[in-house]
């Protein structure tokens, strides 16, 4: 097993008081299949408790009544352990009101807040597309985040950004087909990316744990790692054997109400402690698939 991840001990979650399906912006959503409010809250509570039980911290933000997808807190903004945050600039207009609550929260909690764009101006960036891994900030682009946003991230913060072009409509954010597990391992689903990005992915992750189709579409890649615990919405016997063999404790939770909106454990949790130090490069650098 590699070294434990240098982040993932502190999270922001959004209470699901107004979670519902009002519109369709991904293949999993249907306005005819609404989440059950009581079961939704039980599942959300269980996830928060599992993070605390694993040694993590959880901060909670109230959900806006006009923002049913705000419960997917991973997309509120990219936050770092040294107090920086890049607010998401959502592609779809129904999600943009979330920033009206997220922006003051980040500011009030001491984060130096930046933006790639606002009010429909500037490149779209959604933080569910970004993870620190190895010597880079790895960013998925295509369905939600635009390629120009990678340049903004790199130059604004002076970091190395490695881009992966997402080419599968069912894997519209990087947090679905890519989950860092430790310093060398990550859950990956290569068919989510175009051919050039699949080749690039092989160079980013030294020891990939490749998901099957069934595992990927059970949201296994949308998991949360807290130290030596991985909290998952689904885990096949094959995956469990691999993960426990790496020394990880596997916790499986029922989060199926949130699957109705196209997200699971990782989507519901926003890390507030990404460490960009290993990715620091004077002037910034963007590495795109050849």
UniProtKB/TrEMBL annotation:
Keywords: Hydrolase. Pfam families: DDAH_eukar. GO terms for biological process: L-arginine deiminase pathway. One of its GO terms (molecular function) is arginine deiminase activity. This is N-dimethylarginine dimethylaminohydrolase. The lineage of its organism: Bacteria, Bacillati, Actinomycetota, Actinomycetes, Propionibacteriales.
């Amino acid at each position: 097993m590699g070294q434990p991840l240098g982040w993932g001990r502190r999270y922001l979650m959004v209470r699901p008081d107004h979670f519902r399906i009002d519109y369709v912006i991904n293949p999993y959503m249907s306005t005819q299949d609404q989440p059950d409010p009581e079961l939704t809250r039980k599942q959300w509570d269980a996830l928060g408790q599992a993070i605390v039980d694993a040694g993590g911290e959880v901060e909670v933000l109230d959900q806006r009544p006009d923002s049913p997808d705000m419960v997917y807190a991973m997309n509120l903004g990219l936050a770092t352990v040294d107090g920086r945050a890049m607010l998401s600039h959502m592609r779809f207009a129904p999600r943009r009101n979330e920033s009206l609550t997220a922006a003051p929260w980040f500011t009030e909690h001491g984060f130096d807040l930046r933006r790639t764009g606002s009010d429909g101006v500037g490149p779209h960036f959604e933080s569910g597309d970004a993870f620190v891994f190895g010597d880079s900030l790895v960013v998925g682009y295509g369905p939600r985040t635009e390629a120009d946003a990678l340049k903004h991230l790199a130059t604004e913060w002076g970091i190395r950004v490695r881009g992966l072009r997402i080419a599968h409509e069912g894997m519209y954010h990087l947090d679905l087909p890519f989950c860092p597990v430790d310093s060398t391992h990550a859950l990956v689903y290569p068919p989510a990316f175009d051919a050039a990005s699949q080749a690039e992915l092989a160079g980013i992750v030294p020891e990939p744990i490749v998901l099957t189709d069934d595992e990927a579409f059970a949201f296994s890649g949308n998991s949360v790692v807290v130290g030596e615990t991985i909290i998952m919405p689904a885990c096949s016997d094959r995956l469990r054997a691999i993960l426990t063999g790496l020394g990880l404790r596997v916790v499986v939770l029922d989060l199926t109400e949130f699957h109705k909106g196209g997200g699971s454990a990782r989507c519901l949790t926003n890390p507030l402690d990404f460490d960009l130090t290993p990715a620091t490069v004077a002037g910034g650098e963007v590495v795109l698939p050849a």
